[in-house]
Amino acid sequence: MKAIEIRAPYLIFLGRETQLTYAKTGSGLVQWRAELCKGQMNLEGGTVDLGLPQMTVAEAKAAGIQSLVIGTAAVGGEIPEEWLDALEEAVLAGLDIVAGVHTRLCDIERLAAASSKSGARLVDVRIPPARLPVGSGKKRTGKRLLMVGTDCAVGKKYTALQMEKDMKRLGWNADFRASGQTGIMIAGHGLPIDSVVSDFLVGAAELLSPDNSDDHWDVIEGQGGIFHPGYCAVSMGLLIGSQPDAFVVCHEAGRETFAGWEGLALPSIQDVIERTTLLGQQANSNIACVGVSVNTSGLPADEREAYLAELSSRIGLPCVDPLIDGTDSILAHMSAAEASRDLTGSKDQ
Amino acid sequence: MKAIEIRAPYLIFLGRETQLTYAKTGSGLVQWRAELCKGQMNLEGGTVDLGLPQMTVAEAKAAGIQSLVIGTAAVGGEIPEEWLDALEEAVLAGLDIVAGVHTRLCDIERLAAASSKSGARLVDVRIPPARLPVGSGKKRTGKRLLMVGTDCAVGKKYTALQMEKDMKRLGWNADFRASGQTGIMIAGHGLPIDSVVSDFLVGAAELLSPDNSDDHWDVIEGQGGIFHPGYCAVSMGLLIGSQPDAFVVCHEAGRETFAGWEGLALPSIQDVIERTTLLGQQANSNIACVGVSVNTSGLPADEREAYLAELSSRIGLPCVDPLIDGTDSILAHMSAAEASRDLTGSKDQ
User: Fold this and answer.
1) Interchain CB distance below 8 Å, A136 and B240
2) Quick check: B327 and B291 in contact, CB under 8 A?
């Protein structure tokens, strides 16, 4: 697969960060891929603790660590001068540097020079690989589940990760497919779909979930929203290239306008289901919505269950807050739907 | 407008080309913007004649020419070594070089050096400007007419140019807006929409047809096709960002599958009308199809009229081959539709 690839295990670099909220990439990595995170590195004054062993570059190297992953965002999304001694030392020791910041790693002279000396890679998860293909429209083998949203930042990535986790626990053959920078760092591979040149958007989405075995599910991180005033074309390209068999609509309870586009009303969940089904049929005639994922963190605790119950009865599908309820009810619905489709199939024989 | 801008008038550069068919950019420029084309330059052995005065760089400079436009495509879309003496001379004389080839002009050392000496620009019409905005979703003033297609290469650019020409002849206030490289060379400005990074696709499309006076029509060159297996997301972004009041569906008579995607059937014209209307309503609730433009060059001459008449009666809209019939019937329909909308409006008062 011609996607970005990150070598595990990781040393999570936290700089001088003192607040966990600015170390979301690092904490996300530990939350979803604890088995790949072998150490953390704070610089003098840094106090964020992800619960990993504190390591120097030499200790990380000795422990078999392959990549130093920048797990915090400095102000302005840049690489601050004060990080460079540590990063250069890591590169010279042969550790890849992995980052999703605004500065291109290869534009930082000391890191570029160290990289050509040691052969360690500078991996920018915001930069798509060169020579992506144009979309082919060809049907691929295996099954695909895509997250779509009423808006950006409604929990598409975390829903996908939770569904992958629940599928694996239940013995399903499944893999999370990352389409954004944080997702790529968590997955260790993927493609930053929204950074791809428009002509290759569908092609990149096709590359993200390649041919697979018949029982395999790709659980694809969504981007934007099909009604989004700025990013709808990204969502369209990802939908067509993913050719999903199933999709889950993600929403944040209480959000009524597009975040950052406050004059514009959000579509209803039902509108998103209908539009996604209509457009998705272009790439997969069997596409179906299988559930709704709601971030209910803004609701009073005692309203959560009633909210989800009302929504579920109105939409006619399982509705969950994935980080509280898990996604087993959606998976049960998928199994039942697939069984009935198989039964219909065998009746036709 | 933060788009690519080309300085007129032009010297059309034809290299050693001997066949008009490989000089499409040059002949398109003369066809649609004769008033801006003041001279042509063939190198030794070149025989293509666009009917313009043959000029040296010195003569072009003396005639007030501002840009040397590369009007032919060399094999492989590169800038051949044998062109460089002439191009360098032009840059040193202060002429901008304008090209839509694969090689980036600024990567050619001799041209880059000449450009920093003289201050003349190297204009790559395939490279979008930096720092494009994200789509805002804000309604703009003025009116917009977008070309859409059943496929790529069905005459969207030429239909738009013919409609602009007919509108101007009839006294309408109108401007062609180019969204692809050849269109940009003809218009002298525009944005290569399909080369824009996906996140900024809608924003670039918004930039292409900025606020204008109430009676003004932007006639926007389309890209791809809303059902296209590779380029549908480009078409979606252009549709949403253009927020068109009206659109024309372009088609090539006899084409049944996507060109280059031969296993995939083209949508019907009616399907394209319905899908474009549905999606376009997201950006402009008044969007309406106003006609169909058919390239009938593949039909026997005596079947052309019957084909268009049958189509027109089936679709219920004017259907023309714009390069044979012109587009007055579509413009008449637009006027009538607008008048009845105005009448409806005044009845409501």
Assistant:
1) no
2) yes
Q: pLDDT tens digit string along B218-238? A: 999 999 999 999 999 999 999
User: Is A180:A152 a contact under the CB 8 Å cutoff?
Assistant: no
d(CA A22, CA A30): 14
Q: What values do phi and psi take at B225, rounded to 5?
A: -170, 140
Determine the average pLDDT of the residues in B142-167.
Answer: 97
From CA B281, how far away is CA B239, in angstroms rounded? Answer: 10
Residues with Cβ within 8 Å of A111's Cβ and at least 6 positions away in sequence, in order, are A84, A87, A88, A91, A97, A105, A122
Residues 190-209 of B with CB under 8 A from A: 193-199, 201-203
Question: Measured between alpha carbons, how far is B295 from B283 in angstroms, rounded to an integer?
Answer: 29
**Closest of B60, B61, B57, B67 to residue B9, by C-alpha:** B67
Tell me the shortest Cα–Cα distance from B19 to chain A, in angstroms. 30
Q: Are A99 and A124 in contact (CB under 8 A)?
A: yes
User: Rg of the Cα trace of chain A?
Assistant: 21
| Alpha-carbon distance B301 to nearest alpha carbon in chain A (angstroms) | 35
- Residue of B232, B266, B271, B276 to mutate, testing the A interface (most A Cβ within 10 Å of its Cβ): B232
Task: List CB contacts of B134: < 8 A, sequence separation 6 or more.
Answer: A230, A231, B199, B200, B202, B203
Q: Are A246 and A174 in contact (CB under 8 A)?
A: no
For residue B220, the distance in angstroms to the closest alpha carbon of chain A comes to 18
pLDDT digits (tens, 9 = 90+) for A114-165: 999 999 999 999 999 988 999 999 999 999 999 999 999 999 999 999 999 9
Select from B304, B300, B349 the least CA-distant residue to B325. B304
- Could you give the domains of chain A? 4-124 (3.40.50.720), 143-347 (3.40.50.300)
* Residue A237 pLDDT: 98
